[in-house]
Amino acid sequence: MAFLHPKTPLSTGERLERRHLLVSDTLSLTILAVITVALALVTNAIFQSYASHQTYLSRRWLTRGVSSLHQNDPQAAVYALHSALALAPGDRTIEMQLAEALASAGRLQEAAAYFNTLAESEPGEGVIEIQLARLAVREGNVAQALEYYRRAIDGDWKGNGAVRRREARLEMVGFLLDQGRYAQARNELLVAAGNAPEDDTADLLKIGQLMEKAQSPADAFNLYKSLLEHRPSLFEAVDGAGRTAFQVGHFAEAARYLQRAVSDPEAARLPDKESEALRNMLSQSRRLLLLYPSPQLSLHDRGIRILADRRIAQDRLASCLAAQTTSNEPAVSSAPAASQTGESLNPLKNLARRFEHHPVETADSSPATSPADKLRAIQARWKQLPAKVTLSSLANTPALASTQIQLIYDTERVTAEVCGPPTEEDDVLLLKIAQAPDAVDQE
User: Fold this and answer.
1) Nearest 5 degrees, angle CA 4-CA 9-CA 10?
2) Which residue among 259, 291, 323 closes a domain?
3) What is the pLDDT of residues 56-74, one digit of tens each?
């Protein structure tokens, strides 16, 4: 402490000089501190300005890249997005856009590398999985594409997930349809239909249309009918219900829906080909219902239809037999014509007994295998029936009516199998009835 209290007191000049040195040093240090702080502030300002400008340039390049993508110029988009990423390394938005641009430009391996890197950093993100699925589709890797689609459906979409998952599922359905995997597509569509809200008309209509493409008209028909319960005047649903009812053989319902469709003002906006198809289906449905011997008809009206169908079926069988004979098939005598003479009609009581105890065998019980044998079997069954059948015999002999109807249906099926699809409209319609007779007037 001796230096604080020197033995020899300082002179006035020494004290002044010492004070001057202290003031001078303090002032110098203060100036240096101010300069240092000023330089730091200037440096920070310059850095912030550069960073802000770098962000601005990055956003600008990103906007330019996205615009190029929308304008279908992926090469320009790749260049712009590479520039944006150089200015903002690690920006996920830019990396996503760049990966999409690379995919659009056909640089699939580079795109896959970006998407896989993004997937590793944030597993289960739906938007990345759907992009990987699309890349797998373009590479023709079916199994990998389906796996990525599954991940996308189960993935995290960060908001509005239900809608985005349904979109991913429907995109996968489109891929399955392209691959001809109709059963898988149908299962996915049933799930999508079950998850879709009842008021989501657009998605439900899309699902119904995809069900038709998936060769599942019955499911599409049920979906269209469900839509009509909530929106009875929705033209697309009426149109779809009519078309699919016709495909599944519900011709009574088809006629009703198709009539509503062709009468709707919206039908005028359909392409000519689709409009004509609707009118043809309506015409065929009406004609078919006139041919159908419905159990709901009176005995008299039903008998009239059975007799009309009998003539159509006999003519078809005769034509098929003639074609087979011409093509050097074993000779088979012609089918009985409606006016052919032969066994006289027995009394109605005996006729009823005959068909109750000795029914005519059906096509399923026939052991015939060759085309000629199948035709012979059908002809033999016709010969077991009376050569002349009247309204009275049909009305008083229910077994005869049932046997006659079954033989008409079997004739149309067998002749179509042996001689090819029929060309006459009534035969075409009878064949449709024969394929599912119980569904014709089903509601």
Assistant:
1) 95
2) 291
3) 676 777 777 777 777 778 7
